[in-house]
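Crash report, auto-generated. Payload:
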Amino acid sequence: MNRIVEDMSKNNKYLITGFSGFVSKHFLDYLNKYEPGAAVFGIDICRPSFNLADYRSLSIQFAKIDLLDKEALAKCFAAFQPNYIVHLAAASSVAYSWQEPAISFRNNTNVFLSLLEAIRKSGGDVKVLSVGSSEVYGNVPKKMLPIKEITPLNPLSPYAVARVAQEMISRVYVDNFHLKIVMTRSFNHIGPGQKDIFVISSFAKQMVEAKKKGLNKGQIVTGDVSIIRDFLDVRDVVRAYSSILKRGESGEVYNVCGGQGVVLRDVIEKIADIVGIKVTIKVNKELIRPSDNKIIIGSSNKIKHDLGWKPEISLERSLQDITRYWDENSN
Amino acid sequence: MNRIVEDMSKNNKYLITGFSGFVSKHFLDYLNKYEPGAAVFGIDICRPSFNLADYRSLSIQFAKIDLLDKEALAKCFAAFQPNYIVHLAAASSVAYSWQEPAISFRNNTNVFLSLLEAIRKSGGDVKVLSVGSSEVYGNVPKKMLPIKEITPLNPLSPYAVARVAQEMISRVYVDNFHLKIVMTRSFNHIGPGQKDIFVISSFAKQMVEAKKKGLNKGQIVTGDVSIIRDFLDVRDVVRAYSSILKRGESGEVYNVCGGQGVVLRDVIEKIADIVGIKVTIKVNKELIRPSDNKIIIGSSNKIKHDLGWKPEISLERSLQDITRYWDENSN
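Recovered output after restart:
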């Protein structure tokens, strides 16, 4: 058994950027379970809050590295020589990109470009997963739903522009420097451990906390709850990332989404049912963003057809796990 | 007369980035002639080689400022309060962008974003000319020539990606921060004073120098001379820039080109005729870039129709002036 693990590890060296984040943690869970013996080198600008020793079947190193630090990156490549890079590092808040467009842009596009330069200069044989965002599509008319990968890009925020630039840069590096890069356009994801700045996680936390205080009813203050979104559980997301990284074609881009739309109001009611609380929804008009897209549903046909991936975790199970998470991790 | 000049100057404050370059010098020539009394604040990372005192009808200041230096930019905006910004600063070499993609990208896109942030934070009422490049079109099939502004963008180099990002950022700032930005996609330009790293300038310089040495024949070593390009004289370019800046619609992009294609071999022969030298063309296959577009011709219909601009300087006159320039400025 040991021997098999060792053999596998030779081609299972993963460099993960944005290592300390929510998605990375779930990617480690996935590797821990399905790729025992894999070696992981995590980099981020802040330390992870999870415990590396929990991943018993993985060999994990972590280094605090800013991706714009060329020397540190070069050293990291020379020492670790990854087979795969999972590029999760991002300034992924659209709202922040409106406040600080230049910083947001740098922490998305320049950071990515710096990573590709490190790869190019290292000369290593490595395959990169460039995680992107469905924000690149902008507001897609109803008749063009679900959104396919061939839909014209229409970036409407500084964040979205940075993500389009990331894709264009990837294509240039694939075509000219022959780097192996697969790309995603990831739609909303949810799951246990997600920060409460994200809508579903926030609602679940509020309701769990109300319940803990002994309340049987509560109020959720929110923006427009009639919007329809395509939520995918983070565990399905990381499984999709692994499929794309292993079997995706270099230069190709894949939607990562469930392919199903759900009304935000229904999600809130499902969470309330799970928690066992009666919730009234109070719409705060100031929280309604006028440019917000009413309906976002992605088509997952390409990833299903080309890579055989499909979502496995139902919305109900996802919400149960999120609720349980907050039950264990809130006041 | 003095009074008119003073009145005009109130709305004629130009901030010019990339001030020390070739196009800037010609833009100053234009202002000096057609907008006496205009005030100019030039910024660049290197000092201009031309003499500011030569522009007698303009009031010119220069400051060595890196556009990524937020504080310096903020001070400059507060002190000068420009009405117009002519953004010429760029790392405009495609070849360099292949060598140093990250630096090239930063010196195009990040620099531009930093400029827009300074404008946004200054809150001033200013109109920006965002100079871009025809490189954003990539290789356009022959049947789609001449290239119109609605042609899909297909950036094939890091430089071209940076230029597309610049356009996308401009749109986001126009739509959401209500900045006034007009954009160009500028095709090849030529003219007296252009550095000899550019093909036409280089050929002219070589022939003039050969002639000065008393030679009646010479050899030009070059890449593919059968390529067709749309060359526009820099003096027509700056007149187009002024038209777009003054009367172009915010958020719109305009091709700046002559609309005529000319075979590179014919240009070489025309220069040889002007210089009075017999030239043999030696093709060095290593100088042929395989990805080079065979034919690039832009459509200038939009700028002609919307703004009434049209080119006024013939290729012959342009080549004569370039030749004269090298006659006066070479060994």
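Post-recovery validation: Chain A touches chain B through 24 residues (CB under 8 Å).
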